[in-house]
Structure formats: C-alpha cells, structure tokens
Amino acid sequence: MNLPTLAPAPSPLNTPATTPHDSTRDAHGKEPVRHVFSFYVYEAPVRLWHWATAILVMGLAITGYRIATPAPSALGDTSQLFTMGNMRELHFIFAWLLAIGALWRAYWAIVGSHHARQIYFIPFWSGAWWKEVLSVVRWYLFIDRKTHKWVGHNPLARASMVFMFTLGTTFMIVSGFALYGEQLGLNSWVSHAFGWAIPIAGSSMTLRSWHHWGMYVLLLFTVIHIYAAVRDDVMGRVSTISSMISGWRTFRDYED
Asked: Domains in the chain, please, with CATH?
C-alpha cells in the first residue's frame, strides 16, 4: 500500500498507535483483502470540536437566515411572542460558542498532534504538494481510478479546509462580532476589538451583506465536505466518517 508521504503516520508500523492485521475477506465476506492498517489520527478534543462546530454552523445558518428574511407577520400577540428577539439571542449564543470553540481549536493545534495543525496552513511552496493536489482532483473527477492514501487530510481537502472553512469561519466571526459590537455601542469592548471591520467594508450594511453571503460559502463547504467524506469511505477504501467518531483511520488494501 502506498502510504502517504506528506502527512506521515504518527508512529511507525507495528507500534501501539498502529494496528496492522491481515484478513482474507471484507465485511461482506466477498472481496479479498490483503491488509488493514489503522492509525490514530483525530484526538478526542478535535472530534468533539468537529461535531460541536457542525451543530453550531447549522444553528447559525438557520437563525441567520431567519434574521435576514424575517416572517412578514407573527400569529398572536406580538408583544408577548418576541419571535425575532429570541431568534437574534439564539444567533448570538451560537456565535459566542463558535468563537470560543475556534479559540480552543487553535490552542489544540499548538499542543495536539501534527494532524491537528493541518487545517491552518498549506505547504504552498512545495511543487510536489501541488502535484498531489492535481492528482486528488483527477481522482475526484473520475479521471484516475486510484490516488495515494493519506493518514490525515489529503492535499485537496487540506486546501479547502484552510481557504473555505478556517478562513471562512474567521471572517464570519470577525464580521459578526463587528456588527454585534455596533449594536452594543461604540464604547463596548466588542466594538473596540472588531469594529475596524466596518470601515474596511465601507459600511455596516455592506459588511452585513458579506456576512450573509459568507453563510452560503460555509454551507457550500459543508455539502462538499460531506460528499468527499462519503466518497472516500465508499471508493477510497479509507474510513473517513467513522474516524471522526473513533479517532482511528483505517486503510483497506484490496486486491484487484
């Protein structure tokens, strides 16, 4: 099996961190298998952050969409319902939790394994890395039947995580808190910390529009992320979805 060279395993084969074992059949008892290798990749804090962030992004998208496109009217006594006020409060709670989670994730990138740092940078200076990106693109487009296997993120997934998710989430947090600080008042610490984003955008309305479109970027990333994870599980012979539950990534090396 062609093990990854850009994201090496956390420890050599035949160590406690790796579980190589032989098998003659797959889970359905049909297709012959040479070897199955498992690597511990995603630590518990990373997995917890991943699923918490997924829930928060969905919550922010739903409440943010309702704030941007409120219902024309509410049934009942509007003085008692406070529908949009509750929607905004939920949006702010989700935003605070997302920001705290982002800070925690950045901290874990420092103290965690090297896999925990992959979503924060790409080796753009490496020509070999760009060739690997092209190789993965060709595989996703069904041009090539096979591609290399990576213990962590493959190069294309890593690039999309950096540009669409990490930078995208950072922009959403900064722009969101800038708008939040405007409502708290120009003397609030939130306005002092994030208010600079409004004059860069030109106006709070322009920044609000950018913030709104940023939601669609994150939702597009989510769709691509889920598709790629399912595709890798089915066609790549690599556990992807389950690895974000157990932390172990398994490679199934089938005979052709």
From this structure: 46-70+85-254 (1.20.950.20)
Whether 211 contacts 175, CB under 8 Å: yes
Burial 56-82 (b: 16+ CB within 10 A, else e): bbebbbebbbbeeeeeeeeeeeeeeee
How long a stretch of residues is the chain? 256
Tens of pLDDT along 171-226? Answer: 999 999 999 999 898 899 999 999 999 999 999 999 999 999 999 999 999 999 99
Measured CA to CA, the distance from residue 80 to residue 65 in angstroms comes to 23
Q: What separation in angstroms does the CA of 109 have from each of 37, 98, 133?
A: 25, 16, 23
Rounded CA gap, 214 and 219, in Å? 9
Choice between 51 and 153, residue whose per-residue pLDDT is larger: 51
pTM of the entire structure? 0.80
Q: Could you give the CA distance from residue 155 to residue 132 in angstroms, rounded to a whole number?
A: 6
Neighbouring residues of 62: CB distance < 8 A, sequence distance ≥ 6: none
The tokens describing 117, both together, are 């740092």
Amino acid at 16: P
Q: How many CA atoms lie within 13 A of 9 on its CB side?
A: 21
Sign, CA torsion 163/216/238/131: negative
Rounded to whole angstroms, the Cα distance separating 248 from 256 reads 25
- Please tell me the distance from the alpha carbon of residue 7 to that of residue 139, in angstroms, as a whole number: 19
The SS3 of residue 251 is strand
Structure confidence at residue 253 (pLDDT): 63
pLDDT band at 37; cut points 50, 70, 90: confident
